[in-house]
Each structure stands twice: as C-alpha cells, then as structure tokens.
Design goal:
about 325 residues; alpha/beta; Serine Threonine Protein Phosphatase 5, Tetratricopeptide repeat; Rossmann fold; 7-stranded mixed beta sheet; 3-stranded antiparallel beta sheet; 13 helices; 10 strands; about 40% helix; RMT2_dom
Length: about 325
C-alpha cells in the first residue's frame, strides 16, 4: 500500500499520530484514492475534526472535488459532523478572503461582463440566453424575484435595480408603487426591448443605460437596492458593495441575486458566510432566508440550456439592513 492510501486509511480511522508521521515522511495530502477521494474527504466523512485540521495545516486543498462533485465540506455536512464541518467552513472562508480561488476559477470559465455586452442574446417566453446558450435569466426565478422585490420595497420610497434581464424583479417592484424606480441595464438589446415594452413611459421609472461602474455618477440614494447583473463575478459584487454606504439610506434594504457557487452546497455556504462577513465589515447585517426551489427545477426547465447555474434544493435570499449607527 502506498503512502497516499495509508494516509487515507489513517484519516478514515481518525489516527492523528499515524497521519502526522506519514505527512512528515512526505505523504501527499492532495492524493486521490481509487474512488476519487482525498484524505481530507475521508476524515470529513467520518467526522474526525482533529484530522481535518491537521490535513488542512499540511496544505490539503479544502475545495478539491470528488467524481460526484462533492467537497470535504459536503461530506461532513451530509453526515452531520458539525465539528469537522465548522473547521472546513472556517478554512474555506479564510482561503477565499485571501485568494478568491473559486471566484477566479468561475471567472476564467465564464468570460467577462464586457464580452457578454457584445454578445447577441435571444429572448423566449421562459428564458433569456447569451450567444453560447448559457441562461442569463429564466422564468423559474420569478418567485425568487418577487421575494427580492418585496424585501427591497419594504421601506417604500426610492428603489434601485441594477440589471433588468427579463424584467421579473422590476415588474414585481412596480406592484409596490415606489416613489421612484431606477433601473440600470447595460446590454443594448435588453435596453431596446425595455423601451419597446413601454418601460421608458412609466411615470415613476428612470432608466440608466450602461454598465453600473460607468454610470455611478447618475445614482442617487435609495431606500431599497437590488443587484443582479450577468457576466460579472464575486469581485464585481464586492466592488458594488463598497459603494453601498453612499447609495443606501440608513435603515434601507439591500438584496442581490445569490447565485454564488450555485452548483455546490458547501461552496455556496462558504460564499454566503463570506458575503455576510464582508457586508458586516461595511456596517450591514445580513439575514439569509431559505426558499425551496427543488420543485421548479425539473429536467424540462433546463432543456436547451448549456449550463445549469443552479443545482441546489434551496435558495438563500439575502436581506441586508443598513444599520442606523453604521455611518
């Protein structure tokens, strides 16, 4: 039996001393066994928190994936091993704060916002697609968008939405009759369709055409803000958050489409926690409200769509409150 398999065995058995001896003798902590599992996955699966910590300290990658697309954190979570899960969650948050590895990987795979804006897009009754048949927005999101709208309109007053897409959230916002409703949209074809659909003639609606980064000087301050842009990534969301103190009135409500790592349960939790921590550092509290979505995501939903951007059973809707004393 080679050192990698011995390491997996020690991890599985929770044998910390043997594990440390093997690591000191040069055993590879990144090793995948014949089943495609790492020592860290074995330790997490059996709830050996001390072994998990030792492996992480030795450089075991917290975000390695098994053939079934599960990480060590998923194994700990599925088996109900809270201590091992907590160790992995902390490691994931710390790593992403420093490195942003998942965000950068997704960015590298997905292209940029600027490229998307130059793409041809296609509209149908239930989806908006880019030139590569990746979904920009889909009708299954409608209940989520209605919930987002309810949250950001709960203070009344002036509301901002960044990213029109299919108009699902903006249609829902209109039902609350805000004093003013500002919509930012950067894609020329979506913008053209908005105007053709009469959005430019609504008495309380102001449309700003352009990338939000380029039109910030046209923004005012708002009682509610929703952010949902396509072709942007976590770094863009973080950048937008830096502007919240100027854009969101004290006591106002902010929400965003929480699609971060929507294909992996544990990675998604890491990013939910990460965003909450970073918003807290800016003076905002974040509540994550679970909404079940499994029933509206059958096989037919994804017909003709290249990338299933959401594969989890629940959607965690963020409601962020600007604290009165955060200024």
């Amino acid at each position: 039996m080679e050192n990698g398999d011995l390491l997996c065995e020690a991890a599985q058995n929770g044998d910390v001393e043997k594990l440390k001896t093997l690591i000191e003798s040069g055993a590879d902590v990144t090793y995948f066994d014949k089943d495609g599992l790492t020592p860290l996955m074995h330790a997490a699966k059996h709830g050996h928190a001390e072994v998990v910590q030792s492996l992480l300290d030795a450089g075991a990658p917290w975000n390695a994936l098994s053939p079934s697309n599960l990480s060590a954190g998923d194994f700990a979570m599925d088996a109900g091993h809270q201590s091992a899960f907590d160790v992995l969650l902390y490691a994931g948050i710390q790593a992403e704060l420093v490195l942003g590895t998942i965000a950068r990987k997704e960015n590298a795979n997905g292209g940029s916002n600027v490229e998307y804006l130059e793409d041809r897009i296609s509209f149908s009754e239930d989806k908006l697609m880019d030139a590569e048949n990746k979904a920009v927005m889909m009708a299954w999101e409608k209940p989520l968008m209605e919930a987002h709208a309810k949250a950001v309109c709960s203070m009344g007053g002036d509301v901002l939405n960044v990213g029109f897409g299919m108009g699902l959230v903006d249609t829902a916002i209109q039902q609350y009759e805000p004093t003013s409703h500002t919509i930012v949209e950067a894609h020329p074809e979506v913008y053209k369709r908005m105007l053709e659909s009469g959005w430019g003639e609504k008495k309380n609606v102001k449309i700003i055409f352009g990338r939000w980064q380029d039109v910030l000087d046209q923004f005012e301050s708002y009682d509610g803000i929703f952010f949902d842009t396509y072709g942007e990534y976590y770094e863009d969301l973080r950048e937008f958050h830096q502007h919240l103190p100027k854009l969101l009135k004290p006591g106002g409500i902010y929400s965003f489409f929480n699609g971060l790592c929507g294909g992996n349960p544990f990675f998604h939790i890491v990013y939910c926690q990460l965003v909450s921590l970073e918003l807290e550092s800016l003076g905002y509290s974040t509540q994550l409200i679970p909404l079940p979505v499994k029933d509206c995501l059958g096989e037919k939903t994804w017909e003709g769509v290249k990338h299933r951007y959401w594969q989890l059973d629940s959607y965690y809707l963020p409601v962020c409150q600007a604290l009165e004393d955060s200024e």
